[in-house]
Design goal:
The protein has 159 residues and is of the alpha+beta class. The chain is built from two helices and eleven strands; from the N terminus they run βββαββββββββα. It binds zinc ion (2 copies). One zinc ion binds next to helix 1.
């Protein structure tokens, strides 16, 4: 899809306002991850991961700082965050796709995850398993189903 065809103009930033970015292409999917890593990075119950093509992420203001972490699956990932307030902006294991920390987006209305992963580590009081979305107890072997569910949900919203 070319940039001029992009349906959403997604913008976001960090808590202090130093980092500002925009997403110029369609997000690929959105899911909640309940792994211990996401609980630690968010200092909360889970992480919200929105997959975005690396080339679609445009830093508009500020300069990101990077920290390298070992992911649950053993691979290294680059963690981008605001050097002032520490808000995590995205994770990237390669230069193709980033996992945007979607709570940093301005428009919260699109933040409806199509899946929950690592549910075996999820807080019990969240009451997962009953939300009509995909649930995986650990890291999915492949994400096809999760990518597909997002495309369907986006299509439904627009038609
Ligand atoms: Zn900041
Ligand atoms: Zn995680």
């Amino acid at each position: 899809m070319s940039k001029s065809e992009t349906r959403h103009k997604l913008r976001g930033g960090c808590q202090c306002g130093y980092i500002r970015y925009r997403i110029v292409g369609e997000p690929l999917t959105l899911y909640a991850c309940h792994c211990l890593d996401c609980q630690a990075q968010s200092a909360s119950a889970f992480g919200l991961s929105m997959w975005v093509n690396f080339v679609d992420f445009e830093l508009q203001q500020g300069e990101l700082k990077f920290w390298s972490a070992r992911a649950d699956n053993g691979s290294d990932k680059q963690c981008a965050f605001c050097p002032n307030c520490g808000t995590r902006i995205y994770h990237a294991s390669d230069r193709e796709i980033i996992s945007l920390k979607a709570g940093s987006l301005d428009d919260k209305s699109i933040l409806q995850p199509v899946a929950h992963i690592w549910t075996k580590r999820a807080y019990e009081w969240l009451g997962l398993g009953n939300k009509g979305v995909i649930c995986c107890t650990e890291q999915p072997v492949q994400f096809d189903e999760i990518l597909q569910a997002w495309r369907q949900a986006t299509f439904k919203k627009l038609n």
